[in-house]
Amino acid sequence: RRQRQMCIRDSFTKDEEYWAYQEANPADVYHFAPPCTNLSRAHTKPQVRTVENPYGNEADPEVKACNDLVRLLADRVARQVKAGATVLIENPLGSFLWELTEMKELLATEGFHFFRTDYCMKGTLYQKPTAFLTNSDRLPEWVAEVCTHVKPHAERLQGGGQTRRAVSYTH
Hints:
Layout: E1 6-7, H1 16-24, E2 29-32, H2 61-82, E3 86-92, H3 101-107, E4 113-118, E5 129-134, H4 139-143
Parallel strand pairs: 1-2, 2-3
Antiparallel strand pairs: 3-5, 4-5
């Protein structure tokens, strides 16, 4: 029986030789978590994206780089799924990532599941609603969990770059 593998690597490097190998010899699971800073609705000074224009102004080099990264992510996900791998994409629930055409196409793909997990249900002092997109039938039932706390959370991630504190994983 083959040993289970999970690919943990900077998935956004343009190491084509590595990714060609991955297509030919896929790991069992690929976890993609694109940086959310430029995709955040909290990014208001300056505001780089809107509901009306979730792609923002690609004349801004940071916006363009982020959009290019999302396009690369969508391509890598499609290739790994075609090779038989399980994929998991993670970003905040309110992220503009989920509004981009590339992600909407994956959201509409048969066999993909979109679900929410609130970090407080996994042991943090703050809620941080996070969305996941996967082609796994099992992950949603194992990971999805929406806050059921009746009291306010001990910490709030609002304003002044507070959400950046939650970028690192809790486990």
